[in-house]
Amino acid sequence: MFLTSELKKFHEDRPKSKKLWETSVKVLPGGISHNIRTFGLPLIGAFPVFINSANGPYLIDIDNNKYIDCWNGHFAMILGHNPPQVQEAIKEHLKNGWHFGTNTQYQVELAERIIKDNLGIEKMRFCTSGTEATMYATRLARAYTKRKLVAKAGLGWHGANDTLYYAVGSLDAEICPLGLPKPEEAGILAFEINNEKVFDLIKLNSKNLAAIILEPILGGGGGFPVNHEFLKRLREETEKFDILLIFDEVITGYRFINGLFQNQIGVIPDLTTMGKIIGGGMPIGAIGGKEEIIEQSSPNFENQILIGGGTFSGFPLSMIAGLKTLNILKDSQKNYLRINQEGERLLTKLNQFFNDEKLKLIAIGYKSMIMLHAMTKRIEQPSIREIIEFKDKNREALLQLALFNRNISGLHGLGSISMAHTHENIVQIQDVVRDIGKPVSQQRFN
Ligand SMILES: Cc1ncc(COP(=O)(O)O)c(C=O)c1O
């Protein structure tokens, strides 16, 4: 049986990771520090690997297995791992110390840089994570509009803050996460992307809706792109009713072009949250947007809307790594084009193969973002709702396991293509997915 032989190989090749996992589950709940870092593997009797080092497109685990990495540090490492110029910049600064709890020139330079690149960012504030950034953005929106309701895209992942941790694994906000108030008490509504119903929701709640928040491509939700026309309509309808539009660009910012996704389609939201790439692989979050709104968080403002704080906000190494990364990206037009094309080609080729072979797999993504979904049954051109309803977590875990066994590391199937990936890397990924697609799809689970 495919599952049995894959598990045997996985365990045999990773004795050190296996041993460390046994300790890990004793000291960390579920053995992890981020929920998705099990890679689903314990579900089918395996364990996640422990990584020791990374370079370019590769990760190396503590058993010395080398992987082509598509996870890229939760999408943050667009230049690949350990890019020498960024490493140099960090090393250079380390000589001076790394945490002062004061202002540094680097936060000004990074803010200037981001503001220069993006029409929609007139002023901005740094924090330490995207989770904080989206929490602050919604708070700012509520206080600014003096309205309570926030509508978020179902499946949207904005971090696990108390405000937005609703409708994460599902399209609807009906399930109440333990420890949080019911969605109606929390003032959270959910809508489905690319579905006209949201415009009725806006009309119905126009007097109480503070903001609409969504990612232009649902990242953690599964790689689903939002139609550009839908985003344009959202802008028009929110403007009509003085509802703030918030784009969560924590993943999409600087992912497809040297700037925010919003520039690509000319839809400028009121507020934008950012993270990941703009920190060059160091912890970061940021919120930016219209000066009139964001300036209200200034201590000089009479009725200051309090957002921020954070011992490590504007952390110098994050600012420096971010600046260096954005400077490299400024001259990376060819590389952006290349990885976007590689992603589009890979997506098309994989779906052609899945369709020809009638597999229970589908690739979803946009340009350099690419995810793989497994389902309990074969569905021709499934809708987002069907992909989620018939999600097969065991099959997805087996897919991940079979990829690791063939020296490819990914999450949500794959993840993204970085500028360190070569064409040969992408061809290898494609060949491996083709090799394992059939047995993964045909595997029976009890
Ligand atoms: C779109 C989006 N927003 C917010 C977050 C939360 O960011 P962080 O993990 O830095 O807290 C994430 C993280 O994956 C994300 O993908």
Please tag this protein with its features.
single chain; 446 residues; alpha/beta; Aspartate Aminotransferase, domain 1; 2 domains; 16 helices; 16 strands; 40% helix; binds pyridoxal-5'-phosphate
Structural class: alpha/beta
- How many domains, as an integer? 2
Shape: globular
What Rg, in angstroms, do the CA atoms define? 22 Å
- Our estimate of the beta-strand percent is 15-25%
Bound molecules: pyridoxal-5'-phosphate
Written account of the structure:
With 446 residues, the protein is an alpha/beta fold. It has 2 domains: 2-82 and 333-442, Aspartate Aminotransferase, domain 1, CATH 3.90.1150.10; 84-330, Type I PLP-dependent aspartate aminotransferase-like (Major domain) (Aspartate Aminotransferase, domain 2, 3-Layer(aba) Sandwich). 40% of the residues lie in helices and 15% in strands. It contains 16 helices and 16 strands. It has helices at 2-12, 15-27, 72-75, 84-94, 105-117, 130-145, 183-186, 197-204, 228-240, 261-265, 291-294, 316-330, 333-356, 384-389, 393-405, 423-442; strands at 51-55, 58-61, 66-69, 123-127, 149-153, 188-191, 209-214, 217-218, 224-225, 244-248, 271-275, 285-289, 361-366, 369-374, 408-409, 415-416. Strands 4-12-11-10-7-5-6 form a 7-stranded mixed β-sheet, with helices on both faces. A 4-stranded mixed β-sheet has the order 1-2-3-15. Strands 13-14-16 form a 3-stranded antiparallel β-sheet. Strand 8 (217-218) and strand 9 form a beta hairpin. Helix 4 (84-94) packs antiparallel against helix 12 and helix 15 (393-405) crosses helix 16. The longest helix has 24 residues, at 333-356. The chain is globular. The mean pLDDT is 97. Pyridoxal-5'-phosphate (PLP) is lined by residues 74, 129-131, 134, 157-159, 215, 219-220, 248, 250-251, 275, 285.
